[in-house]
Amino acid sequence: MSATSETTKPSNESGGGDQSSGFALDIERQTIPGAFRSYISKLRSGDPGALPSVLGLVVLVLIFMQVSDRFLSKSNIGNLPGQGAYIAVIGMGLVFVLLLGEIDLSAGTCGGMCAGFAARAVFSGDLHAALPSFLYWSLIVGMLGAIALAVWLKAWTGAVVVAIGIVLILTNMIQHVGWAIAAAVCIGAAVGIFTGFLVAKVGIPSFIVTLALFLAWQGVLLFALTSQPIGTTDYDLWFNLANANLSTTLSWVFTIVVVAGYLAFTLWKSISSQRAGLAHDALSLVLLRGGVLAAVGIVLTFLANQNRNNNPYLVIAGIPYAAVIALTLMIVCSLALSKTTWGRHLYATGGNAEAARRAGIDVVHMKVTAFTLCSAFGAFGGIMLASTSHSVSLDLGAGNILLFSVAAAVIGGTSLFGGRGKPRDAVIGALVIVIIPNGLGLKPNLGVQYQQVITGVVLLAAAAVDALSRKRSQRT
After folding, report:
1. pLDDT tens across 104-129, in order?
2. Rounded (10°) CA dihedral 203, 206, 212, 218
3. Scanning 69, 309, 321, 385, which has the fewest C-beta atoms within 10 Å of its C-beta?
4. Backbone dihedral region of 168: left (phi > 0), alpha (psi from -120 to 50 degrees) or beta?
């Protein structure tokens, strides 16, 4: 038994008790000192987690504080979620694929294409009439094919999601913004099913498949837009995703729900595990973690609820919708990965696909579902990007978007070799990525070349940490 745990064993004296079994049940109770020692041991074994990205974030903040005194202003900090939420969303989708040791280079352009279909439907009021006939029916047939593939590969949830998308398109419900956004995500899921099929079943390397699709979806976007960009500022729901805030009251409600939900879940987990005679966190450790989260949430919410506008007659306050969306998706994805059988199987497949297959895990199914989620998140990320840039442009999702999203996941701590990573990595990494152009933009005499160089150096450093930690973990 390691020093990080307190162990109690029921005693069997010679005169009583059941000695039919050859061993007693170990009950591990994780205390605050034990958790600290366990974390130090984890660092020494070559698993730094999000620590390098957090330290990098602190360094960048300190540097940009010296570059401009406006960097830590309320208005500038309040703009960060809207500027980087799309990176976090696409990056979270990429985490699922990176956990398998795969890559999806088409997530950005897939998002642009899906946003293009949504914008065309809302702008024209009738997607069938607005699109070239061959493109509209190719979309319908492609989604029907994705349903058939999903059923064959037992990806039932993917099949249902794509079916919902077909219904929305055929009934022209997508002339309304909310349903158009939902249909865009459904189209993204269909794309992911095809991508997963080509990688997992046909056996084409994911780099080649997604590179080809990266180029193809850019062309489809041009067809969907008929080579004319479409603005999103006139559609309140779409525009507000990256540009509006919760009210101050709802901001406190959101924080209370998150903190209370975390405390309730961790307390229930600790108590139920203790009653079942399993390893569990001590009450002191649970309360400490909940207290830290509550303190951070209260401080951030208080600051977010301050007026960020210099004009006192036009108040801009509250937690940005972009931050709420990113945090909510992070919580849902974290629960899916850590508390479900599917999530445990995904980690197992990424750690050793052959061992997972021998253990009875359907590796093909896991890969298909991972790519489906990645493309669906990419589609919603494209919607968020269109909100940030105020339009669905002809090159939406191309350029550096995918590179920044992959960089966000890797910088945050997700391994490029598979088997290690969390959704929070994409959020932390996205914050690092968006701070660089934000801070440099406050110094007009610093050109865009500085942004490219610094971002590249940060990504290279993150990849180096990943490779070195992997080597160290193999030696221990």
Report:
1. 999 999 999 999 999 999 999 999 99
2. 140
3. 69
4. alpha
